[in-house]
Amino acid sequence: MTHTARIAVIGAGAWGTALALQAARAGAEVCLWARDPATMSAGRVMPRLPGYALPAAITVTGTLPRQADLILLACPAQHLRATARTVPPCAPMIACCKGIEQATGLMPLQVLAELFPHSMLGVLSGPNFAHEVAAGLPAAAVLACAERTQARRLADLLTTPAFRLYASDDPTGVQIGGAAKNVVAIAAGAAMGARLGENARAALITRSIAELGRLSHALGGRLETLSGLAGIGDLLLTCTGLASRNYRLGLAIGNGTPAQEAANALEGVAEGMATAPALHDLARRHGVNAPVIATVASLLAGTTTMADASRQLLARPVGHEFA
Ligand SMILES: NC(=O)c1ccc[n+]([C@@H]2O[C@H](COP(=O)([O-])OP(=O)(O)OC[C@H]3O[C@@H](n4cnc5c(N)ncnc54)[C@H](O)[C@@H]3O)[C@@H](O)[C@H]2O)c1
Ligand SMILES: O=P(O)(O)OC[C@H](O)CO
């Protein structure tokens, strides 16, 4: 592409703001769409990502873009449908959220495909805390489209030496990894909050990879994707990093705080809260054995206590590791 790329970012939360900064760093002209007038009038620093002044290449606006080379949808998964519905599909659309729509059990690209059956669609995911990407610290992620060449072309628009965007043609695996890591992070946090120990956390994370593999496979994704950035990469980050909201939500639940109270106390969205029941339902409908996801869904619904959850997981029969 010889002209300066125009990238529209929909959603000026922490991730949308970090992506806008990254797009500007990659040389694009950026339009950052904010839903909330208070965010728009905040000036050059977005309230959800304080400490990072926006450069001149980024325009903050409340008007949806009518022309762009790429549209990044960076709102939470539960609001993707309502938000995307208002966006003119003037360019390839990339879902940057990590979750499953609770009302339908659909992955973000399935939601977008219902709205925009003729648009080029993709998903971006990986181990990326917004504040680190905003600071320009080294990071990697994956951009997946149905066709690898399209994914590569779109990834190039956002790639810089410090932000390495790999291409993939397995959007299903990438979306399951991105959604499920939030649920596993709640489990890992809960284990640490309940003082079950670091061995327990490592076991939970590793066994959950088998679980995500089964679920992804049942939905048409590839196993190898879960050994990549959107799978193990994001599990490593989110299940161990205190910067993760999902992990902190789990910590509070493990400490005995009721789930809703813990979620209300968080700054920002913890996608695992709505995605755990959605994934649990998806696993049930596809006949996939997913005990960690089921346990987190019960903890969040308040139908099991931390002590019972731990007892039930430990009471499961021990079989072959990769059966
Ligand atoms: N923050 C991160 O480090 C990070 C990194 C990678 C991916 N993500 C993903 O990006 C997505 C957005 O997360 P975030 O951290 O930017 O959010 P955030 O917690 O910073 O802010 C919440 C966002 O939700 C929007 N919102 C609230 N109610 C809404 C509604 N009714 N309709 C539409 N939008 C509404 C707000 O405008 C705001 O943009 C999530 O799926 C998250 O998993 C976040
Ligand atoms: O704060 P969390 O738990 O939403 O995690 C943020 C990112 O998804 C990490 O990759």
Automatic annotation (TrEMBL):
Matching Pfam families: NAD_Gly3P_dh_C (PF07479), NAD_Gly3P_dh_N (PF01210)
Keywords in alphabetical order, please. Answer: Cytoplasm, Lipid biosynthesis, Lipid metabolism, NAD, NADP, Nucleotide-binding, Oxidoreductase, Phospholipid biosynthesis, Phospholipid metabolism
Q: What is its EC number?
A: 1.1.1.94
Name the top EC class: oxidoreductase
The record's catalysed reaction(s) read: sn-glycerol 3-phosphate + NAD(+) = dihydroxyacetone phosphate + NADH + H(+); sn-glycerol 3-phosphate + NADP(+) = dihydroxyacetone phosphate + NADPH + H(+)
GO molecular-function annotation terms? glycerol-3-phosphate dehydrogenase [NAD(P)+] activity; NAD binding
List, in alphabetical order, the GO biological process terms annotated in this UniProt record.
carbohydrate metabolic process; glycerol-3-phosphate biosynthetic process; glycerol-3-phosphate catabolic process; glycerophospholipid metabolic process; phospholipid biosynthetic process
Bilayer-crossing regions: none
Give its localization. Answer: Cytoplasm
Q: Which GO terms describe its cellular component?
A: cytosol
- Give the SUPFAM superfamilies listed for this entry: 6-phosphogluconate dehydrogenase C-terminal domain-like, NAD(P)-binding Rossmann-fold domains
Q: Where is the active site?
A: 181 (proton acceptor)
In which residues is NADPH bound?
Answer: 15, 35, 98, 130, 245, 269, 271
Q: In which pathway does it act?
A: Membrane lipid metabolism; glycerophospholipid metabolism
Which residues are noted in the entry as sn-glycerol 3-phosphate-binding? Answer: 98, 126, 181, 234, 244-246
- Say what the protein does: Catalyzes the reduction of the glycolytic intermediate dihydroxyacetone phosphate (DHAP) to sn-glycerol 3-phosphate (G3P), the key precursor for phospholipid synthesis.
Which family is this protein grouped under? Answer: Belongs to the NAD-dependent glycerol-3-phosphate dehydrogenase family.
PANTHER family, sorted: GLYCEROL-3-PHOSPHATE DEHYDROGENASE, GLYCEROL-3-PHOSPHATE DEHYDROGENASE [NAD(+)] 2, CHLOROPLASTIC
Put simply, this protein is called: Glycerol-3-phosphate dehydrogenase [NAD(P)+]
Q: Say which species the protein is native to.
A: Komagataeibacter rhaeticus
